[in-house]
Fold:
Amino acid sequence: MTEHSFNDWDVTNDGVMGGLSQGHVTLSNNFPVFSGTISTENNGGFTSAFTKVSTLSKDIKSIHIRIVGDGNTYQLRIRSEVMGYNLAYKIAFKTKINTVETQCFTLADFEASFRGRSIKSAPLLQAHVITHVGFLVSAKQRSHFSLAIHSIVFK
Structure:
């Protein structure tokens, strides 16, 4: 089991494509909180936050997150290096408003993608190629979001 520590988070807003969404990560009660506003103006509608992961054992088969959400659906996203390429693996999950939840996902259930498109020929996600872990939120209309991250544990 490897519990991830919360150090630096990098946020990518849809401004990379002309959008106006604003996400950020702040500390609240010693927990990182990914929050902000999703805007659909200028073809926007998403924001994401990632943190680097130390090299993991090949034996790890799942990821467990303990979060407090806001009722929105998020993606748990994992960046990896596979055959010299950076790939994203994702899985969607729904949160409950102001409720502490633990959600567990097996690495085999993650779907490989690149810039929003599924990569069906990609290999199954393996722990030893994981470089970053993070969250993405998107919306079809303007909305506020907030996700408190209590823990990320690889088992």
